[in-house]
Amino acid sequence: RGDVLAAIERAVAGGVPLSSLIVIEYANEPVREGQFRKLSAFRIGREIVPHFSVNDGQWLVKYGRMDPSIEDLYLEEQRMLEANPYAEHLQKVFDVAGIEYGRADFGLLKGRIQVYEINTNPHIPPPHKHPSATRMQNVRVAWEKYLQALRAIDSPSGPPVWFRRKELDPGILGVMKHDCVEENARLARNREAQHEHDAQLRLIENLQRVKYAVGTDIDFTEGGNGDFYTRKGWCPSEPWGRWTAGAEAIVHLRFKQPPGRDICLTAFIKAFAPPLRAIVHVNGERLASWELKNAAFRKFRAVIPHEKLRAGEAGIRFEIRHPRSPKSLGLSQDARPLGLGFARMRLDWNQGWRRFAPF
Question: Which is it for the CA torsion 3, 5, 8, 10, positive or negative?
Answer without folding.
Answer: negative
